[in-house]
Amino acid sequence: MLTGKVSRFVGRVRSCVVIPLARVFTSSNMAKSKFEYVRNFETDDTCLRNCYIVVRLDGRNFHRFAEQHQFTKPNDNRALGLMSRSAHSVMEELEDIAIAYGQSDEFSFVFKRSSTWFKRRASKLMTHVASQFSSSYVFYWKEFFGDQPILYPPSFDGRVILYPSNRNLRDYLSWRQADCHINNLYNTVFWTLVQRAGLTTAQAEDRLKGTLAADKNEILFSEFDINYNNESALHRKGTTLIWEKRNETVTKRMKPPHEEEKHVPVIRSRRRVQAYHCDIIGDQFWEEHPDILEDDNC
């Protein structure tokens, strides 16, 4: 009824009403109000151009989370697989991520130096990565833990770091992989002493005080006949995710002229996320995958 009245009114005084109505109903004017000034308090968090943007997530209070969910010590392949699956989901959602690296309860995501996603706003990038990762962790839980219930929602804190050169970025990833090696070697020896030698956690900690990597390797080899270098690469090296083009054969229904419809194999090239458990500190990995890094001279 109101629409009819407005229409009749416009028809009678067209010259007076048309312009005010247009002014009232445009979306740009509808969005403005006297309160809009509060947007001036927002901080400009645009990431510097020509820098790799790294978003690193860390599990919050994951020692407690691991105990509550009875993770296997020193490494739970289910939990590590779930972390990788969640990171895989993040990369599929944000295709400007060139490489990701994860170990234990952390994952680092590297956005291309030329990326313009979310106008390079740090808060947008970090919150999107964190929310996608956290929701994926819960969503894919049953795929790795079966009927074991998740007792409470996990959470991950995040940070954004910028690296201007390929050398800086490689050194960052090398730092994270070196950290993986240090932590895993310690945990492997620690839990071997507890589980196989019968030491308490306090005794195992005291036994390892002041030991170097060579000392830990010697304990494993001489006392338990364990060669650390033969341990799973997943545990020693962590997980590196990159994009790779892979050819796949699909069947397509086609009907050639003057022939019956038939199924024809077609080869397609698609980008897929591929996982590696290898050394990324040396040059070999980067030489085999030259497309990951962008030219420093650009």
UniProtKB/TrEMBL annotation:
Its cofactor is Mg(2+). Mg(2+) 1 binds at D58, G59, D105. Its EC number is 2.7.7.79. Binds 2 magnesium ions per subunit. It is an enzyme of class 2 (transferase). Residues 35-164 form the tRNAHis guanylyltransferase catalytic domain. InterPro entries: Thg1_C_dom, tRNAHis_GuaTrfase_cat, tRNAHis_GuaTrfase_Thg1, tRNAHis_GuaTrfase_Thg1_sf. The keyword GTP-binding applies. GO terms for biological process: tRNA modification. It catalyses: a 5'-end ribonucleotide-tRNA(His) + GTP + ATP + H2O = a 5'-end phospho-guanosine-ribonucleotide-tRNA(His) + AMP + 2 diphosphate + H(+). It comes from the Eukaryota. GTP binds at D58, G59, R60, N61, F62, H63, S104, D105. One of its GO terms (molecular function) is magnesium ion binding. Keywords: GTP-binding, Magnesium, Metal-binding, Nucleotide-binding, Nucleotidyltransferase, Transferase, tRNA processing. Mg(2+) 2 binds at D58, D105. Residues 167-282 form the Thg1 C-terminal domain. Belongs to the tRNA(His) guanylyltransferase family. Homotetramer. Interacts with MFN1 and MFN2; functions as a guanyl-nucleotide exchange factor/GEF for MFN2 and also probably MFN1. Adds a GMP to the 5'-end of tRNA(His) after transcription and RNase P cleavage. This step is essential for proper recognition of the tRNA and for the fidelity of protein synthesis. Also functions as a guanyl-nucleotide exchange factor/GEF for the MFN1 and MFN2 mitofusins thereby regulating mitochondrial fusion. By regulating both mitochondrial dynamics and bioenergetic function, it contributes to cell survival following oxidative stress. This is tRNA(His) guanylyltransferase. It comes from Seriola lalandi dorsalis.
